[in-house]
Specification:
30 strands, alpha+beta, 19 helices, globular, binds pterin cytosine dinucleotide
């Protein structure tokens, strides 16, 4: 049979810069976010929150609020606790009770104390403001070191002190399954035998995630049907479904979770928050749809914070620059409670302290401490930026001490390319790597030698110009289920519809990453059909049967691989149908291939059949080929047997104004290796976003509490977000070292930019201020801090 319709040649799309399919609707304001949804009879929630960091709730008087116009009901934490259990967590660590609405005691500013249900959002807010709360103040626990001292006020009665999780060891001399120390003689020996040991205390400060769209939820329990639909600005609707079902005594079959358009999450929307549980539980009580939309002040104080780890870091080396080992004592200030992954995130800091180096020993000890602050959890990079920051800063100090070029010191200690897969001291297995290639590329693109000359000549002129370099590896593409509490697989389905269009579903739930485009690219190539013929559905448990979600830069490596497994099943079946249709040619399915909208014989491409014809036949197969079922719809789960370990090299040049201390980033070069790339344009966009947040951390952002536990940086007036004018044009390039962990050879890239950039920029700032004898500057690089150093104050 000759194809009836000779199609134009379709270019291969994987690996090309296809523009994002998502963008027209986003740019034109046609996307639908939670707050755009209005249901008939919908009521609104507002939370009365604590303005005291630590105290005993004496009374919550709701009388005045109940009488306010439009107020339907008011619930205190005590009342809600009668039908809503403490919130579940997703880690195996011990955790104190964490009520969605506080019972008896408040432990951070912003913790909900009561909730008002009203006819509209403003009446609900007025009602919340009318609630009279009497709290007996307790001393606020702010400093995570003091918090561990005897005599400190204890946040949770069921913990004997403020240590949430203590004595977590990672690395040489550690049992990787129990995190306990077994024998540290090798570590001690390495440090005793070293020519040089450098120690430095460093802080990786607390950050507020600040997605452009805040959190929001609508819960709609329909008593007649006994079903609950929940729309939420979430990164993982399937996990939301599981937890909401559990907390509302419903089966997963009765709960449908929908993530409509989500305006960024950056890790903060992995969590299932108290507001979501309350909306679901109260909707079930009242039989009404309920909506809650976070405002920006609430986002600052009640959405999780990120980072906040204090590190005492030590490095041991020989004079020739051979690094013998690294040690770290880490204290994570996790705030008042444990959320979904809170206690797990800082463990990644110890686990990744091996960096890209072939160290003799690596050892960390971690303590996680409760304080009267907003709980921390995953924020873009989640544990890995902290690790690489500590490591790449101390290596820079070593380079300076030994007077070795920082690039060459790193090169000397790299894990060689022929040693992958490489088992690290903390027990991870790096999948693949070629660190020298990425370093060489970065030095070439940045023109390292010339940059050094420019820096030297600027310094001779009296300008405070500095150069910084860092090299990172990170863990993502999570991962086997043994290492991910929520499950480490991903789900996809692919359906070739009648008429030949393709509908695919994915359990990955993008919220800005552009997976509708990249997944379409893969399917377009696989079936050799135009991109426009493909529709990618996600973010709705009623449509996508199963899923884990989008975090840990896993969508491409795990979700994308699941998608291709499902596609393979469909294309195999399609070829079987096509072979039965191409009777004259006696072709077998294995002889066939997809080409330009047709299925043709690979050795004789002039013989074939239109893709659409096969699609139509599959749904009305007369006669039905023996042993076959009608239809072209298949599903797949993919679970990798390892994480992926992308890596890269960042270089920055910075100038500090002598008069004001203001830093200006002059140059930012990033070479990132995320294996095989599906869409370079999207990958660059991801690196841009990550760099913006990494530079934000290095130079501007910091959550600050005062000694009473009041949030000082509770608005954009005080919390400094970077702006486009703060950045130079980023210079990006990449190397491509495929991973053997998934069939696509792709590693993740969504967080990479946040990981390499912070040490790189601080290295540059320290370099710029060399003549003042400074060894370390804690982030962010605030002008007043730098000015103080210029004035001779101690850093
Ligand atoms: N990609 C690619 N080739 C690769 C790897 C990735 O083309 N080798 C593409 C992917 O198809 C996808 C994007 O790059 O379109 C990012 O893929 P991946 O690295 O798999 O990361 P995820 O899609 O799982 O996204 C999660 C990651 C994380 S953990 C955070 S936090 C983060 C981030 O992505 N939050 C973001 N990027 C964000 N981008 C936006 N706009 N908003 C957020 O909240």
């Amino acid at each position: 049979m000759t194809p009836t319709n000779r199609n134009p040649v379709l270019p291969k799309l994987v690996g090309t810069r296809v523009k994002r399919r998502e963008d027209p609707r986003l740019i034109q304001g046609r996307a639908t976010y939670v707050d755009d949804l209005k249901l008939h009879g919908m009521l609104h929630l507002a939370f009365r929150r604590s303005d005291i960091a630590h105290g005993i709730i004496k009374t919550v008087n709701t009388e005045a609020a109940e009488k306010m116009p439009g107020v339907i009901a008011v619930y205190t934490g005590e009342q809600i606790s009668k039908f809503l259990d403490p919130m579940p967590i997703g880690t195996p660590f011990p955790a104190p009770d964490h009520w969605a609405v506080a019972v008896n005691q408040v432990r951070y500013v912003g913790e909900p104390i009561a909730v008002v249900v009203a006819n509209d959002r403003y009446l609900a807010r007025d009602g919340a403001d009318a609630i009279e709360v009497e709290i007996e103040e307790l001393p606020a626990v702010i400093d995570p070191e003091n918090a561990q001292q005897d005599g400190s006020v204890i946040l949770h009665d069921d913990f004997k002190n403020n240590v949430a999780v203590g004595e977590i060891y990672a690395g040489t001399g550690t049992d990787a399954t129990t995190f306990s120390a077994v024998d540290d003689s090798k570590v001690t020996a390495a440090f005793e035998n070293a020519d040089i040991v450098i120690s430095q205390r460093m802080k990786n400060q607390r950050l507020a995630p600040n997605a452009m769209e805040g959190r929001g939820v609508i819960a709609h329990f329909e008593p007649g049907k006994d079903t609950l639909t929940i729309w939420s600005s979430t990164q993982n609707p399937h996990i939301l479904r599981t937890f909401i079902a559990q907390m509302t005594d419903l089966g997963e079959h009765q709960v449908r979770a929908i993530a409509p358009e989500v305006g960024g999450g950056f890790g903060a929307k992995i969590n299932i928050y108290g507001e979501e549980y309350v909306a679901a539980a109260l909707s079930k009580q009242l039989g009404k749809p309920l909506k809650w939309i976070e405002d920006r002040s609430e986002a600052f104080m009640s959405t999780i914070h990120g980072r906040d780890i204090l590190g005492d870091i030590e490095i041991a080396a020989n004079k020739d620059g051979t690094i013998l080992g690294v040690k770290a004592n880490l204290i994570a200030d996790i705030g008042a409670y444990e959320m979904l992954l809170t206690a797990l995130i800082p463990t990644l800091t110890g686990m990744m302290l091996n960096g890209v180096y072939k160290f003799g020993v690596v050892r960390s000890r971690l303590t996680e401490v409760f304080t009267n602050k907003t709980p921390t959890d995953a924020y873009r990079g989640a544990g890995r930026p902290e690790s690489i920051y500590f490591l790449e800063r101390i290596i820079d100090m070593l380079a300076r001490e030994l007077k070795i070029d920082p690039a060459e010191l790193r090169r000397k200690n790299f894990i060689p390319q022929d040693e992958f897969p490489y088992p690290t001291q903390p027990g991870l297995i790096y999948d693949s790597g070629n660190y020298e290639a990425a370093l060489d590329r970065a030095l070439e693109i940045a023109d390292w030698e010339k940059l050094k000359e420019e820096r030297n000549s600027a310094q001779r002129e009296g300008r405070l110009v500095g150069l910084g370099l860092s090299f990172y590896v990170e863990v993502c593409g999570l991962g086997p289920s043994a290492t991910v509490p929520t499950g480490g697989w991903e789900f996809a389905s692919v359906t070739v519809e009648r008429g030949g269009k393709i509908t695919a579903t994915t359990g990955s739930s993008p919220h800005g990453q552009g997976n509708e485009t990249t997944f379409s690219q893969m399917l377009a190539d696989h079936f050799s059909v135009p991109l426009e013929n493909i529709s990618i559905l996600h973010g709705d448990t009623g449509v996508v049967k199963q899923g884990i979600g989008t975090f840990g830069s896993r969508s491409q490596a795990v979700g994308g691989a699941a998608m291709m497994l499902a596609a393979n099943k469909v294309s195999g079946k399609m070829k079987e149908f096509a072979a039965t249709m191409l009777t004259e040619s006696e072709a077998s399915p294995t002889d066939l291939m997809f080409e330009n909208g047709q299925i043709v014989i690979a050795d004789a491409p002039e013989i074939g059949i239109d893709f659409t014809e096969v699609a139509d036949f599959a749904y009305v197969p007369v006669p039905l080929p023996e042993g076959m079922e009608p239809g072209l719809s298949e599903e797949a789960f993919f679970e990798p047997d390892n994480n992926t370990y992308p890596f890269g090299c960042h270089i920055a040049m910075i100038e500090i104004d002598k008069e004001t201390g203001e830093p200006k980033l002059l140059k930012m070069v990033a070479i990132d290796d995320c294996g095989n790339v599906i869409n370079p344009l999207i990958v660059e966009g991801q690196v841009h976003g990550g760099l913006a947040q990494g530079i934000g951390q290095a130079m501007f952002e910091e959550v600050i509490y005062d000694q009473e536990g009041q949030l000082i940086t509770g608005s954009f007036m005080d919390y400094v977000m970077p702006r486009a004018t703060d950045f130079p044009q980023f210079e990006l390039d990449r190397t491509e070292t495929p991973t053997p962990v998934n069939p696509l050879g792709a590693k993740g890239v969504g967080e990479a930019g946040t990981i390499g950039s912070t040490p790189c920029i601080v290295n540059a700032a320290v370099d710029a201020l060399q003549k003042f004898g400074v060894r370390h500057i804690d982030m962010p690089l605030k002008p007043e801090k730098l000015w103080g150093i210029i004035q001779g104050e101690e850093s």
